[in-house]
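**User:** My hope is that you can spare some time for a protein that puzzles me. I have put the entry right below:
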Amino acid sequence: MLTIGRFGPVTVEQARKIAKAKLWSVAAGEDPTGDLQAMRRQMTVGALIDLYEKQGCFVQRGRRQGEPMKTRTKTVTVAGLRNRVVPLLGKRRAQSLNSGDIERMVADVTSGKTSRDEKILFRQRNIVRGGASAARKVARDLSAVFSFALRHEIVTHNPCTNATPRGDRRVEFHVVFTRIFVSQRLIKTVAKPGVLRPMTKLCAIAQSRFRSEASLCRS
């Protein structure tokens, strides 16, 4: 199936003319769909990020999944991709990237290879920092870009899926302390008069275990 365009930007008369031209090309032995897919396969990472900014900036998970990103979130996300991914991988074909390329990009961003501080306007500077946190953030954002490209058949795989950059300990830290908070409330509940003491002891053991996990996350 060949998609000509969305109704609105493309009028009915324009769609008819385009469809007629495509029919003539098919009659001449050409393959418009195959040509379009081949053209998409040649898209660079920089061009893919431009397309993602126009069509793909949507929330990936949570209660707002599928909704457009808020303006500030979109601005920060696209700026991170342009300032950290494009200098390193912008001219590479998106289809040609593999997990090793993503891991090298994360290592370069962590070491500060894309860091810079430049003046852009009067009293305005473009400050790009490196570090592990910035590298993990841009790796997650790039994975969302490739998921978008995968859905639109621009690429056949997401190179970020099997990449193994340094894990995001912040998520694990949050989950562990949520469990500690729940266990503390449970101890207060079961410690009331008339409730079995073994249950209180069991919750205390669980709390101690969760605290040890939290200390490991911080180390």
User: Anything to note?
Assistant: The CA atoms of residues 120 and 126 lie 6 Å apart. The first strand starts at residue 116 and ends at 121. Residues 169-190 form the longest helix (22 residues). The two ends are 54 Å apart (CA to CA).
